[in-house]
Amino acid sequence: MNFFSKIKESLSKTHDKLIIGFNQIFSRNTIDEAGWEELENLLITADIGYKTTEEIIVELKKRNIKSIDELKSNLIDLVGSVLKRYEGKINITSPLPFCILIVGVNGVGKTTTALNLGAYIALAGKKVLLVDFDPQANLTSGLGLSGKTKNVYKVLTGDCTLDEAISSTELLNLFVLPSSIDLSGATVELVDRDDRNYLLKKLLEPISDKYDLILIDCPPSLGVLTLNGLCAAQEVIIPLQCEYFALEGLSLILQTIKLVQKSFNKDLKISGIVFTMYDSRTNLAQDVVSQVTGYFEEKVYETIIPRNVRLSEAPSHGKPICLYDSTCVGAKSYAKLAIEVLARG
Fold first, then answer.
1. Which structural domain, as residue segments, surrounds residue 57?
2. Within the chain, how many helices (H) and strands (E) appear?
């Protein structure tokens, strides 16, 4: 079964839940504010996207709808008109930038995004290398490769070659350059080197033609290791938790990216911001999505990653979510994010 067949199968399993949800709304006599919120959450769950959902809800309210039948027909009309905008616009064969950094503060789903986005892009037929440049080595353990004696730190110290350190995974097109706690010592060891900010870039450039995409996972702190990632990458994806303090972290990350663009890597671009750990039941999550989407507009990915227990469980089994539970809502969301990243090219 190919990548898109798997997505089609997993999406079909959400069909009944969505139909039940819409039928519950359409079985009412009128729609109140709680009903509007319920409709908005259903549209987001259907992965229409937050920005598009907000546009649909605002337009529906403008139309001064008097009955549920009128709501139903107007909703069908609006969703249909939105879909027509995108006919022929998605191209997943466009070339990817060779190196993308997943950067974010601690606890926003940075490593989860790197691991699962890489896995689904690999399932789409692209050859992907995941680079674990974080001493915590969560990406490495999330693929069941903890304890690898040949890792990125050993490559930096010259104790093994890059080819020796790169490991295959359970997925055909997915490879990983593992990390270990020893990498924490690199922060001190590299401080006196003139080229300390470009070591990862120099390491990866010779193998850039071997992979369609290299995804780097760096520490949440903005130190020399993360700076290496920013200097090596062509683009940055920023996972953003739908919480107030995450907005403060986003501000710091954006300031750092501007400094890097000015002094170290003028070609660095922000590929996009992806919302993670979204809980539609909280007003705060909805407010964060609304504010960030309103400010950054097209830089925000339409796909929103929800809070999901299965996503949290998968790393403890050493598997990406596509191998642990491909039918859960978290898996479906990362599959759609992969399509969106591929479409942006």
1. 3-85
2. 17, 7
Is 222 part of any domain?
Answer: yes
90-103 average pLDDT score:
66
Please, are residues 272 and 307 in contact by the beta-carbon 8 Å criterion?
Answer: no
Residues 6 or more apart whose CB falls under 8 angstroms from that of 256 comprise: 222, 226, 230
CATH assignment of the domain containing 314:
3.40.50.300
CA distance 29 to 160: 70
Give CA torsion, residues 26, 31, 37, 38, to 10 deg. -20
Report the predicted TM-score, pTM, of the whole model to 2 decimal places: 0.75
- Domain end marker among 58, 85, 112: 85
Going by C-alpha positions, the residue among 42, 75, 82 that lies closest to residue 61 is 75
User: What are the angstrom distances between the C-alpha of 186 and each of 16, 152, 179, 222?
Assistant: 52, 11, 12, 14
Provide the pLDDT for residue 287: 86
CB atoms within 10 A of CB 138: 19
Query: Looking at the 3D structure of the chain, how many domains does it have?
Result: 2
Q: Are 236 and 117 found together in one domain?
A: yes
Beta bridge pairs of residue 337: none
91, part of any domain: no
